[in-house]
Amino acid sequence: MFEEKNPDIKVKAVYVPSGTGAQPTYDRILAAKQTGKGSGDIDLFEDGLGVVTKGQKDDLWDNLSTDHIPNLNNVDQNTLNDVSNLAIPYRSSAVVLAYNSETVKDVPKTLDDVYEWIRSHPERFAYNDPSTGGAGSSFVTTSIYKFLPEDAIHNTDPSIESQWDQGFSLLKDLGKYMYGKGIYPKKNQGTLDLLTSGEVDMIPAWSDMVLDQLDKGQLPETTKITQITPGFNGGPTYLMVPKLSEKKDAVYKFLDFVLSPEAQNVVVDKMHGFPGIKLTNMSQE
To answer: Which Gene3D superfamilies match (predicted)?
Structure first.
């Protein structure tokens, strides 16, 4: 779509595995900056909020504005303020419960219901190693902050960690009821594979991954999803421009396209995500 309208610009996408797979790319950008070698031939980087914040501390990301990317006006300014205009939240997803509807009849509605279901159905629940994928990380984070005030999740003061003990105790107690009595699969796909094979009946999963794999017939038709109240922690996926990129003009043009209603329809229709622009700016067709 973009290259058809901009034949002078070639976009080279490089797949990076979820979880820790993005770390070498980040390290490459940082090393290039430290050695005076620009951005390491990386002109646009996708990752989560943690990497946005880390890059802010390392002074890696370009400050983005409507002067260069007019369609930034389509994005809720509050979400841009959250990242100091250093990243574009171009799509979002939610972590939900995915379950086998043939075996799960009493579907949890709250977080406490989930914990009770886990205890009542030993080894039939799994979440992935939180360092390897956002679904498992969301389950852990939601559990840790369950006992804290609602706004604590936004507290970046390291002292907040002293209040995590109760949440970690909960996770430790749940461990003996997990798949394999404490086996945590690698990556978001790892738990989806267990659900597909019937080795577990319920997992936390990204909504877009589940919907995409259902569409492609990669998950059983009996797979259903539900959101608990309050929901699991989730959020946007961000695009960052390395400050020392030598191709900023082309990147700005690409980002402007990404934030167009045309491209955002692809996020919704093909990627099964939530749009990164305000709904009022989406195509009404």
So the answer is: Periplasmic binding protein-like II
